[in-house]
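Q: Here's a chain of 319 amino acids. Please give me its 3D structure as tokens.
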Amino acid sequence: MNYQSFLGTPDFVRFCDELELKLCEIIPERLPGAAFRRQWIDKLQGESYLSFTINPKDSAIGINLNVSDLYAKEVKAEGMVSAARVRSMASEMLEKAIERLKMIPVIDDDLTDNYEKARPKLITQLVAVRGNEDMLRRIPYRQIEDLALVYRLFISSENGIETCLISSSMLEDYGVTAEQLHQDAMANMSAISPVTIKDLQMLLADLAGAEAAEEVAPELPDPEMPKLYFLGTGLKYLGASAIFYPGVLERCAETLGGNYYILPSSIHEVLLLKDDGTVDPEKLSCMIYEINRATVEPSERLTDHPYYYDCGTKEFRSA
């Protein structure tokens, strides 16, 4: 969610000040010795936000409370946030934070500066360059056309998946090159989250039944177009980057039987469409744009146009 429309406004500043004041009153009773601070959290995909961060006593790991999102939702629901509501929200936020703290996975502090420990947990994420320029200046990445491969630490737990974005300062602490980071992350991805390539209609039928699959499959601009294929990973998480796993572009060409288009469905998967000579890239761009605006959250979008792979020249390019 983009919070720029209200950041710095008098109402938002008042909301933050009153919320912080109330939290600082009640935190010592519920979390004795906990540290509290207000900070800006930089994120990819336009998800940066103002946070109230709570660190329990003697813990390097804390909880970031997204104050920007909280304000946006309250204003949308109520129109104006009263002082009384702010005070009650502080108690609700703290209780939720305490519950979340119980679910935080145990993370080795050495992961952020010891490369030998970090290497087995390296994974990749694919994002658009446009819209992420500020963050890309502070992190290692590899640009491919108008896309960027960035790198994360993969931390799984019984409560789900957590990841940590690799920053330039972390890379410096690791004492390795960006190329080494890339090679190790790519090797890990094939093991941690193997690629999945499957006929989209068959995949949807497996998940939802044949009739439901016809209803939810993307509508192609031309019914006579070749069938779509799904490309993602076993984790079903950050799987769009699988298109750049070693050998995957070539493997997809073998599966589809020739050159093909890549449709950026989301950061979690892409769709593949064989080039049979009848496909119009402009119509594909219109379809991608409409689907992105209708069904894909901004934080999960890639780009609004297709890509193309030529199996003869082994070239990946914008279509």
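Q: Can you summarize the key feature?
A: Residues 10-30 form the longest helix (21 residues).
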